[in-house]
């Protein structure tokens, strides 16, 4: 395993030791060069000051859109999308159906909510399609095609989540 990198570093005297990284299936363990475990059990990074709070990841950018997609106006409206989402088994509109900004939970955890693009690009949804530990992913919901795609992806995710 080698000598832990915190030995001889006075700024880390308060640390119990560095976190160890395990490699599954190999039995190999090494000292992490970036994180230490403090006496209170919390993890702290060596390369940045820590107040004990996890820093949010940077927000992913909105996906690019083609100009022709924006002009498409026949098909599903935003109101129809909201009604279709309320009909999906497993999704719960925690706003109770009130207001123009519905907020949906899946298994008692935030799953989907809507925003308006501050740059005038239209409406988009923040959705957690990667599982309970995933961050919100922005998905356009301004055109009928985008709304139908969002509904299809949400239904597929909820169906898979209900099998677990």
How would you describe what is shown here?
The chain starts with 14 loop residues before the first strand and ends with a helix. The model is unreliable at 13-23 (pLDDT under 50). The chain has helices spanning 67-71, 78-86, 144-163; strands at 15-23, 28-38, 43-45, 91-93, 103-106, 109-116, 123-127, 137-140. It has 164 residues and is α+β, with helices and mostly antiparallel strands. The chain has a 5-stranded antiparallel β-sheet, covered by helices on one side.
Proportion of residues in helical segments: 10-25%
Shape: globular
The computed structural class is alpha+beta
Fraction in beta strands: 25-35%
Q: What is the oligomeric state here?
A: single chain
Helix/strand layout:
Elements: E1 15-23, E2 28-38, E3 43-45, H1 67-71, H2 78-86, E4 91-93, E5 103-106, E6 109-116, E7 123-127, E8 137-140, H3 144-163
Antiparallel strand pairs: 1-2, 2-3, 4-5, 5-6, 6-7, 7-8
